[in-house]
Write a structure and sequence with these properties.
Elements (H helix, E strand, L loop, with lengths): L2 H5 L2 H23 L23 E11 L7 E3 L6 E3 L2 E2 L5 E2 L1 E5 L4 E3 L3 H8 L4 H9 L6 E6 L10 H8 L4 H16 L4 E6 L1
Antiparallel strand pairs: 1-6, 1-8, 2-3, 4-5, 6-7, 8-9
Helix pairs in contact: 5-6
Length: 194
């Protein structure tokens, strides 16, 4: 008897068609059931865009949702049809997605580790506001983007062109400044309003 035969006996193989038939019957029964069309089928989800460098966005938090459905962790770019991560990606390849739902029922996706930690770190400003104010609902925030976190990984010549630096030294210094801001968690500034 080989390793494969030891792992599976003949009864297991004979049971598969029966299981497949049962699954097929259940699927057929499900497709025959009428389903009410929900309001969600007509509503468009509105998202708040992450601000550009130097810009801010202000909103009032209603809730923060941990999106567990893995299918909602990916989307397709409409311009180039490439798939991208919605949320953040761990080193092991798994993804996390948390959405802030505003009082206007818009979503702000924590789509970078810098944003993710701003709103989830227990020692951060947002956590302090939650501890001081009680519930998450009603906390008004202003989020300002200070730096583009991709700058340290770009070529020096590209940084020179993007920011109109006249020397490679200035571009390299700016890359170091952005890298330090990343390390210190300062790509964004979060202010708690009211």
């Amino acid at each position: 008897m080989n390793e494969f035969e030891e792992m599976y006996n003949e009864d297991d193989f004979n049971a598969e068609p029966e299981i497949e038939n049962q699954i097929e019957k259940e699927t057929q029964n499900e497709t025959l059931k009428d389903e009410e069309v929900s309001l969600d089928d007509y509503l468009l989800e509105e998202y708040i865009k992450t601000p550009e460098v130097g810009e801010s966005v202000t909103f009032t938090v209603n809730s923060i949702v941990n999106v567990k459905d893995i299918k909602k962790h990916r989307a397709i770019n409409r311009t180039n049809n490439e798939e991208f991560i919605v949320g953040v990606k761990r080193k092991d390849g798994t993804t996390l997605r948390k959405d802030i739902i505003t009082d206007e029922n818009k979503k702000f996706v924590l789509n970078s580790w810098a944003l993710y930690y701003l709103f989830t770190a227990k020692q951060g400003k947002f956590a302090e506001a939650v501890r001081n104010n009680g519930p998450i609902k009603g906390i008004k925030v202003k989020l300002t983007r200070k730096y583009d976190g991709s700058i340290p990984n770009k070529k020096v010549k590209e940084v020179m062109k993007l920011y109109d630096f006249d020397t490679e030294e200035k571009a390299t210094e700016y890359q170091k400044e952005v890298a330090k801001a990343m390390k210190d968690g300062k790509l964004f500034e979060l202010e708690i309003l009211e």
